[in-house]
Amino acid sequence: MSRSWQDTNTGHTVRQLTDLPGGAALGYFRYAKHVPGGLLLAFGTHADGDALLIEPESGDVTPVKGRTGVYLGLRERDGTLWHIPSGRTVAATKLPEGTCTVLGEVPADVPGGISSVTCDGETVILSEMVHDLSKTPLPRGKDAPALWRYLKRPRTGRLWAYALRTQKTTKLVESHEVCFSHVEASPVDPGLVRFCQDMYDGLGQRAWTVRTDGTELRKIRPQEPKECVTHEFWWPGGRMIGYTFQDRRNDPTLFDLPWLEYSPTPTQLGIAGLDGYEVYLSDPMNHYHSHIYVSPKGDWVCGEGTDGHCFAYAAPFTTSSTRIDLKAYASIHTPYVPFAGQGVETAFSADSRWLLFNDTIDGVRQVCAVRLDG
Fold first, then answer.
1. Model confidence over 48-68: pLDDT tens digits?
2. pTM check: above 0.90
3. Dihedral class, residue 66 (left if φ above 0, else alpha if ψ from -120 to 50, else beta)
4. Which residue segment(s) compose the domain that 154 sits in?
């Protein structure tokens, strides 16, 4: 049974859905999470197991049988979870049943770390990063010089595609100035991959797509200098890409306050088509939001507040209006760390009745839910 309490800051009733001693959490905000039957995919931590299935309405939590290991993606239409149970073995587990099938092994001589699997289960996408983080470690905290040193570190990045059936390796993109991250295959097109360059959001073109044969490298929302496009994600249906946007072209604080949540420039939600060009841009919402995400039906958006605005937010959404009135639904009790965030990871139930999020309860991260208005 879930535990409930009244949030004194928002007036809403919050339900704690998981109560594992080692904690549990929804995956990163852009990860697909919905399993047929209205179940939501989450993950236990430490000794409590791997994948979990949550029924948001009842609060029932069911562990998935067997070790799932590293998450690579979820095909929501039939509940196929792509994952690495161990080493460089790629497997598919059918949810909610938990039946696991090994798809293949990525040889050790294929460069890079496994990042994603195409929606047909045929091709593995790998990201190769060559850099020395001992000299310029990833900064945690509000230290602008350390952040700029990290962003300017020498590095080389490559993306690779490895076909499990033919064992063919294809180099998709290469750079001797940046590495590549946020690598995620399309949920509907087995030949398409979305990724970003690990550069400062406003000083170059951040978001891209490329075909798995290395062709059709395209910018997602072409940027001018000091336009910040980041936190990109597949829009429901897989035919558009959402992202957060800040226009810092007239902002003199950019280099002293590189973190978007501390900038004086408002955050907006943008959506681009697969040709890369913007098809929607919301009115300014606020300046402090980190991730903005969307419900499976595209009828709600949610977001994480940051330092000084620690709430899980949501608002009804339609592309016919540029206005988004985000409302605080639940307080977040996890400490905020600049450039690291809180791991809130807001999401929606499949029927858009519940807003789900991670929060720290009695010192341990758990999955919580609050009922949406309307």
1. 458 999 999 999 999 998 888
2. yes
3. left
4. 3-371
